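URGENT: need a sanity check before tomorrow's submission.

F., can you look over the Arylsulfatase H record below? I want to be sure the sequence and structure line up before it goes out.
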Amino acid sequence: MVRSPLVATLLLFLLLAAGNYVTGAEVDRKPNFVMMMVDDLGIGDVGCYGNDTIRTPNIDRLASEGVKLTQHIAAAPLCTPSRTAFMTGRYALRSGLGSTGRVQVLLFLGGSGGLPRSETTFAKRLQEQGYTTGLVGKWHLGVNCEYRGDHCHHPNQHGFSYFYGLPFTLFNDCMPGEESDVLADLQHTLQNMVIILGVCVRVCGLLHISLWLLLALFFLSILATAVWYVPFKLLPTWNCIIMRNQDVIEQPMTTETLPQRLLVEAQNFIRRNVDRPFLLFFSLAHVHTPLFKTSAFAGKSRHGCYGDNVEEMDWIIGKVTETVDSLGLANNTLIYFTSDHGGHIEDANSKIGQRGGWNSIYRGGKAMGGWEGGIRVPGIFRWPGRLAAGRVVDEPTSLMDLYPTLQHLAKDTQPDRHLDGYNLMPLLEGKVDRSEHEFMFHYCGIYLNAVRWHPPGSESVFKVHFFTPNFSPPGAGGCYDTKVCQCHGAHVTHHNPPLLYDILYDPSESHPLTPDTEPRYAEILEQTAKAVERHQSTLTKEQGSDDIHSPILWKPWLQPCCGTFPFCGCKEDTPYV
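C-alpha cells as predicted:
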C-alpha cells in the first residue's frame, strides 16, 4: 500500500515529461511551406478579389481563413523575369535576366540562357536549413549551359531536391491544332524564303545556267528548309517535355492528362514528407494558353474555355489544401497563393473568344511594363493559429518578399546578397501597419519603366511612368496588332515630364496628375529621381554571363532528349488515377 502512491507519482511524472517533450518538439519543429503560383492569372479572375461570375470557392476560402494582400506586386510583367525575382528576392536585372529587344523570356529549352549558377534561391537557403524541397510544375528558368546534360540551370542545381514538371512552359505548340506562338512572324519569313528558293531552283533547272550555281541554290534551299523546319516545326518535341529530376520522361508531352499528373505529384510530395519540414513550390500550368479542355470542367463556367480553366485551377488548389489539412499539417504549414503576373488581355481568337485573364479595374496586362494590370496579382497567406483569419492588408508588397519571409521563418540567419524584398511576417501578423517598401521599381526588360512611391505618413501611393507602350490599334487598351507589347524603340512613348498617378485615388491610372492638381508634384518627381539614383547604384555587372540574350537561338547540343538525339521520344508509364 505504501509503494502504490510512489508508483503512481512516478508514472504521472513520466507522462508529464513525455507530454512536455512532445509539445516542445511540436513547437520547435520548423514550419512547412506550400507555395502555389498560377500562370497568367488576372487579379480580377478570383472571387475574393471582386469576381462574382467565375467560381473560385477554394481560393476564396484561403482568403477567408488567412490574410489577403490587395497591393501585391510582381517584379516584372512576364514569366521568366518575374519568376527569377520571386525565386531570388531580387529584381531579375541583378541576375542578368533582362532583355533589350523583343524576346524577354526563354524561347527554347535548347538555349543557353537561364538562372545563373551563381544565384541563390529560397529553395537553396531552406535546403541548407534541413528542408526537403520540391518543385512540381513549371520552371522556365533554363536547363543547360554548355552541353546536353550539364543541367547548370536545372531546378536540382538551384535548391530543389525533387523536380517533376515542365522545364520550359506550356505554350500553343504543345497542343495539336493550336497556332504557333513562338516568333510566328520569323517562322512565316523563313517559310516564304524556302518557297522562293525552291521556285528559283526549279526555274534555274529549266534554264541554261552554271551547274555550280544550280547546286549552290539547291543546297541553300536545303539549308533554309532546315533552319525553318527543324527548330520550329519540331517545337512540340524540343520544348514540350516533362522531366523527373534530370531525366526526360515524356517527349513530347500529352497535355490532356497534365493537370491531373501535376496535382498527384504535388499531393504525393506532401505525403512523403509529412514527418519532416518541407517546402513545396507548386507552379501550375494553368491558366497559360493553350487552355485545357478537361471534361469535368468543360462548358461549366459562364466565361467559356478560360473560365472553365480558372475553375479547374481553383479545384486543384482546393485538393492541395485538402491534402495538407487531412494530414494534420494545417497549423504548422504556411500556404501561399499568387500569380506570376497579370492576365494576357490581348489573347483571344474566333474559336473560343477570350483566352487571357481579366485584370479588374487596373490598366494594362501581361508584358505591359509598369501598368498596374500586368503586375498587381493575388496574394493570399493562410496559417491557422499564426495568422488572423480574414485579415486584409492594403500596403504595397512584392513577390520578392517571399524569399526573406521564408528565410526568417526557417531561422536562416546566414549572410546574404543584396535583397529587394522584405520579411512580410510583421505585416501579416498585424505587428506593424506600414510596408517596408517605400519605393518599388517596375522594369520592362532591362529598362526602368516606372517607380512607385509610398511616402512615409501618407496613405497615397504615387506611380511615375517614364515611358509607356504604344497600344495598337490606336485607342485600344493593349497591343492587339502584335499580341504582346514591346518596351524598346518605336514601340514605346517616353514622357518628359513623366506621367504621374496616385493609385490610391486613381487605381486605373486614368487621370495623370499635374502641378495644378497635385501640390506635391515637384517633390514626388524629385524624391523618385533620388530613389532611382540610389537603386541604380546598387546594380552591378556581376550577372553578365548567363543572361537572357541568347534564348532566341536554338542550340541542338543543349537540347534535352530522351533517346538518341535527334530521335527523341518517350511516354511516361506511371498511371495517374
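My own read: Residues 12-27, 542-551 have pLDDT under 50 and may be disordered. Residues 184-233 form one domain. If you see anything odd, call me.
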